[in-house]
Design brief:
Layout lengths: L1 H4 L3 H13 L14 E10 L4 E9 L2 E9 L3 E9 L4 E5 L8 E5 L5 E4 L3 H22 L36 E2 L6 E2 L6 E3 L9 E3 L1 H13 L8 E2 L27 H6 L4 E2 L2
Antiparallel strand pairs: 1-2, 1-7, 1-13, 2-3, 3-4, 5-6, 6-7, 8-9, 10-11, 10-12
Pfam family, one: FYVE
InterPro entries: PH-like_dom_sf (IPR011993), PH_domain (IPR001849), PH_domain-containing_F (IPR051765), PH_Phafin (IPR037871), Znf_FYVE (IPR000306), Znf_FYVE-rel (IPR017455), Znf_FYVE_PHD (IPR011011), Znf_RING/FYVE/PHD (IPR013083)
Protein name: Pleckstrin homology domain-containing family F member 2-like isoform X2
């Protein structure tokens, strides 16, 4: 079915509509051989809370963005190559149900579907696309270290590194980009270049910094990209990197929950 849609007018029109919905903030999506397999709203677990995000599944990439106007406009476009994507089930926990992890070298996170059926359909379609692209390119998934799934802010009342420092307006929460824990200023006072996540050095906890430093020394890699930050640095957890978690411009004349409950996976294959 996907092969039949490659050169179809309907597929080209759908991809153009997705591209236009991101406006000038998005990257071009109309590449040769690309097919829009399906789309829908999933609840993404962000740093501060769970938020609705629009997801577009193509035969080679997974694209998602913040919802500005429901089913019409999106921003903060993120593109994950499917050849790197792995899925891992998440058990139901209270009101957080029908979830799974989307794991990749550049970004990893948890999403939740509206129903168990939606979860099953999403995961099946993603896995099929991943398997198909790997087979088509004759490759195996990279063994490169994947990015961590961040621990939500709400799950850390005190620093998860030193186990004693409480968070305040001055001593803010920060995430280690190597292991995903929430830690205080002092415990994330170092940066390291993780090129699959960012072009600039980003925050890591002291334990990960020591581990990465040792690995670099053992492999004779010059640590010219590491840097020290002051403990008084009060920038948010995302540092210099833009993040879809930092602001939420969802506006559709209704509540976020209504949009989520009304969502479904729309398949085109």
């Amino acid at each position: 079915m996907v092969d039949r849609l490659v050169n179809s007018e309907a597929n080209s029109r759908r991809i153009n509509n997705v591209e236009q919905s991101f406006g000038s903030s998005g990257q071009p999506l109309g590449l040769p051989g690309r097919v829009l397999v399906g789309e829908g709203v999933l609840t993404k677990m962000c740093r501060k809370r769970a938020k609705p995000r629009q997801f577009f599944l193509f035969n080679d990439v997974l694209v998602y963005g913040n919802i500005i106007i429901h089913k019409k406009k999106y921003n903060k476009q993120h593109i994950l190559p499917l050849e790197d994507v792995k899925l891992d089930n998440v058990d139901d926990d209270g009101n957080l149900r029908n979830g799974w992890k989307i794991i990749s070298p550049s970004k990893s996170f948890v999403v939740y579907a509206a129903t168990a059926t939606e979860k099953k359909e999403w995961m099946a379609h993603i896995r099929k696309c991943v398997n198909d692209i790997l087979a088509l390119r004759g490759i195996r998934q990279s063994t490169t270290v994947d990015s961590p799934v961040w621990v939500p802010d709400s799950e850390a009342k005190t620093c998860m590194h030193c186990r004693k420092s409480e968070f305040t307006v001055v001593n803010r929460r920060h995430h280690c980009r190597h292991c995903g824990i929430v830690a205080c200023n002092a415990c994330t006072s170092k940066k390291w270049l993780l090129p699959l996540q960012s072009s600039k050095p980003i925050r890591v906890c002291l334990t990960c910094y020591q581990k990465l430093s040792k690995e670099a020394t053992d492999n004779n890699v010059t640590r010219k990209y590491s840097s020290v930050m002051t403990s008084g640095d009060n920038r948010n957890s995302s540092g210099e990197d833009s993040s879809d978690d930092d602001d939420d411009q969802f506006r559709n004349g209704g509540s976020e929950q209504l949009a989520i409950n009304d969502a479904h996976f729309q398949s085109y294959d």
